[in-house]
Amino acid sequence: ITNLESAFELASTYLSAGRSNDAVAILDALLAKPDADLRTLASLAQAYQQLQRIDRIETTLERYARLQPDSPEGWYQLAAVQAVQGKSSSTASSLRKAFELSDRRLATNPAAANLRTQVTADPRFEFVRPSLDPKL
Q1: Within 10 Å of residue 83's Cβ, how many Cβ atoms?
Q2: Residues 109-118: pLDDT tens digits?
Q3: Sequence-ordered list of residues with C-beta below 8 angstroms from that of 113, at least 6 positions apart, any chain
Q4: Residue closest to 81 by CA, chosen among 98, 62, 58
Q5: What integer is the mean pLDDT of 31-41?
Q6: How confident is the model over 53-69, as pLDDT tens digits?
Q7: If you average pLDDT over residues 2-10, what whole number do you get?
Q8: How many whole angstroms separate alpha carbon 77 and alpha carbon 94?
Q9: Is residue 12 within 8 Å of 41, Cβ to Cβ?
Q10: CB 57 within 8 A of CB 42
Q11: DSSP 58-127
């Protein structure tokens, strides 16, 4: 499938028809494309979220974060998905990167979002919070 909109429409049609496996197959084909851009990956993450396929959301967000390595939010969202799955060490690694980028951005833009303070109130981190290094 080459046309992104058509692929998402087809996946949606399959989903509406109760053919979730076929919908996931279409989304997986898009995810497998090595030239998937940020827009495609963001759309895929949303689609996988609607399908409650957290494993695929993580894979999609990993690619997103690597495509936009200087985005603190990309790494933060990846950490959140890893936290929901109880992956403490992966969560810590992704959060460390998000915090480093957030701190760097705050140094030049004090009005920017501070991800260190956001994480304390984010319920997605509730189960891994006790295992996270407080020095993160």
Answers
A1: 26
A2: 999 999 999 9
A3: 72, 73, 102
A4: 58
A5: 93
A6: 999 999 999 999 999 99
A7: 85
A8: 9
A9: no
A10: no
A11: HHHHHHHHHHSTT-HHHHHHHHHHHHHTT-HHHHHHHHHHHHHHHHHHHHH-TTS--HHHHHHH-GGGTT
Structure tokens at 100: 């480093």
Contact predicate 132/88, CB 8 Å: yes
- Separation of CA 101 from chain center: 16
Evaluated on CA atoms 81, 85, 90, 92, the torsion sign reads: positive
Q: Among residues 121, 57, 123, 133, which one has the least CA distance to residue 88?
A: 133
Report residue 1's pLDDT band, with 50, 70 and 90 as the boundaries.
very low
The pLDDT assigned to 11 comes to 93
The residue count of the chain comes to 136
CB–CB of 103/117 below 8 Å? no
Instruction: Return the sign of the alpha-carbon dihedral for residues 79, 82, 88, 93.
Output: negative
Of 30, 28, 36, 115, whose CA–CA distance to 79 is shortest? 115
